[in-house]
Design goal:
Shape: globular
CATH class: Mainly Beta
Number of strands: 11
Structural class: mainly beta
Largest sheet: 5 strands, mixed
Number of domains: 1
Radius of gyration: 18 Å
Number of helices: 3
Distance between the termini: 41 Å
CATH architecture: Sandwich
CATH superfamily: Aromatic compound dioxygenase
Order of helices and strands: HEEEEEEEEHHEEE
CATH topology: Protocatechuate 3,4-Dioxygenase, subunit A
Amino acid sequence: MARLPTTPSQTVGPFFAYGLMNADDARIAAPSAEGEHILLEGVLRDGKGATVRDALIEIWQADAAGRYPGKDPDADTAVRGFGRALTDGEGRFRFETVVPGASAGAGNSPQAPHFALGLFASGLMRRVTTRVYVPDTPELGADAALACLRKSARASLVAKWGAPDASGKRALSFDLRLGGEGATAVFAD
C-alpha cells in the first residue's frame, strides 16, 4: 500500500471583512458616553518586525466607571464594551472609545484600567489574547494579572499617550509584536 506524504496544517482566512465586520465595529463608545473619549491605535507586527495586514483585533472593556456592559445593570448604555477592527495594509488598527475605569477581577482582585484584546490573523492557529493597560493610573501596581509577569513583560502591556487628533481626542498608542525582540506579553486561553 502506498503512503501519502503528510500535508502541512493550514490556517483559515484572511476573510474577516466578509463575514465578521460591520461599518461601526471600531466605535465602542457613542458620543454620549461618560468619560474621556480617546482613540486606541497601534500597529501589529510579526516576530521579525514586519507589519501584519488583514488581521482582526477584538477588544473588550469596562465603561468609565469600571462597569462591564452586559454584566452590570448600571453600566453606561452608551458604551458597547466590545469592538472589532481590521489592520490595514501597514498593520495599523484604531478604535474610538473612552478610558475604562478600574474594575474588580476574579475574587474581587483589583484590575487597573485596561482593554482586553483578542487577535486573529493568517499564520495563527489559535486566537492570541493580551491586555492593554492605561498608563499613569494608580491601580497599575495592584493589578493581579500584571503582578504575575516579569517587569519587562509588564512594560509590554502598558500603552503610551500620544498627541491629540484634529478633534482633540487623545490617542492611546499600543503596538503589538507577535514574538521576537520586544514581543508583547500574551495570555494562554
